[in-house]
Design goal:
This protein is α+β, with helices and mostly antiparallel strands. It has one domain. The protein has six helices and eleven strands. Strands 2-10-4-8-1-11 form a six-stranded mixed β-sheet. A five-stranded antiparallel β-sheet has the order 6-3-9-5-7. Bound molecules: fe (ii) ion (FE2). Residues 72, 74, 221 line the site of fe (ii) ion (FE2). The site of fe (ii) ion has 3 residues, from strand 3.
Amino acid sequence: MGGMDEGSLTWDEPRFWLMERDFGTGEEAFAAAENFVGSRLSADPIEPLTVIGDYVIPPSGGPASRDFQTLHFDFGLPLDPRTSQDVAHYTALYIAHGDLNVTAVTRLVPLVALLAQRDWPERAELIARFVAYGRTHGARDDRMGYSEGSFARVIDAAVTSPPLLVSVKTDREFLCGTEFADLGAEDVFFQRHGLDIAAVEIDIVLQPGQLLVFDNLAFAHGRRGRRRPGELHQRFYGHLRLSPADQQGVRERLLSAFCGSSTDPSTPASSVSIP
Ligand SMILES: [Fe+2]
């Protein structure tokens, strides 16, 4: 394994790690991911970090995936935390060795770089908007608080203009993640809000045997292209039943991305390719 060249990179640069070694099995790959994520623990103020989910997408035996996946955060971001819930910090992706002809592109959008493209309200105003949006558009039960997985909805909540997206509270049939018919429609939404996704998006075509680990709180992520049944193995590292107080700490990271500053500048950021 090569060294990790974090050199002159600074905190606001992307935090993802592509390990190009030819891992023979998912267990080998995820063992490497766990070692790697574990090595980041000293920089994480909230412990313990543990496996909170393990999925194959799309499930084996089912249909292929849609031809794109909207930008999102795994397990959602706590925008109005009121009850304990699971929060994902790192996502690991692996494609089985020998699974040929992979064409889907993983899209990583670094929040700090994207959100710096325009001005935002101050921190307290952003929190008030997140809470208000949750009441009209988010959680079906306000007592549970509001956690949001869709990046577009986080932006829909933060802006001053009236919301553009359908309320999942008033439209009970709405399926989360289907806000946009295609990539073009998603792009139009972000452009309307002064955000140029293409200018900062990092595209990765993960190949069989490779492992990708990224910070689920530093990037919105999605997909371009289809995945075949059983193609992508995902493991999520984070916090089980995180308290509302600790979720506020997670929300502070998001708020600091809007405000153009980091709450954990000691964490070196990197885009490291480990052969
Ligand atoms: Fe995801």
